[in-house]
Amino acid sequence: MNIKPIKSKSDYLEALSRLDVIFDAKTGSPESDEADVLGLMIDEYEKKHYPIDAPDPIEAIKIRMEEMQLKQIDLINEIGGKSRVSEILNRKRKLTVEMIRKLTIRLNLSPGLLINDYQLTR
């Protein structure tokens, strides 16, 4: 195992290339251990150099609805009526604390994600 810190983009690309080669190594083998370490190092490099922002609350709801194959009508109990669901998802109205509480449970989303501010459309 010849692992070195990832300090540059070329180091990063080299690590990705090596991980691609040893990714399916047998568990417990030296290559498997190397893949584990490389994976952690690559993850840290990506967090620092290629951060991904969390989606705003409405995008998070829409993403989860798609994952769970839900339609707007499926959120009536959490949001309060077909037109209200449409207003929320079309950014015409803000989420309330009660909606956030219910959506957190229904969609298994973090309340911290849903309380973030977002822009309404006019």
Tell me what you see in this structure.
The protein is mainly α and 122 residues long. It has two domains: 9-49; 57-114, lambda repressor-like DNA-binding domains (434 Repressor (Amino-terminal Domain)), CATH 1.10.260.40. The chain contains seven helices and no strands. Helix 1 (9-22) runs antiparallel to helix 2 (30-49). It is elongated, with a radius of gyration of 21 Å. The model has no long low-confidence stretch (mean pLDDT 93).
CATH architecture tag of the largest domain: Orthogonal Bundle
Strand content: under 5%
Low-confidence blocks of residues: none
Question: What is CATH's topology name of the largest domain?
Answer: 434 Repressor (Amino-terminal Domain)
- The CATH class of the largest domain is Mainly Alpha
CATH superfamily of the largest domain: lambda repressor-like DNA-binding domains
Provide a count of the helices.
7
Number of strands: 0
| Largest sheet geometry | none
| Percent of residues in helices | 55-70%
Shape, principal axes of CA atoms: elongated
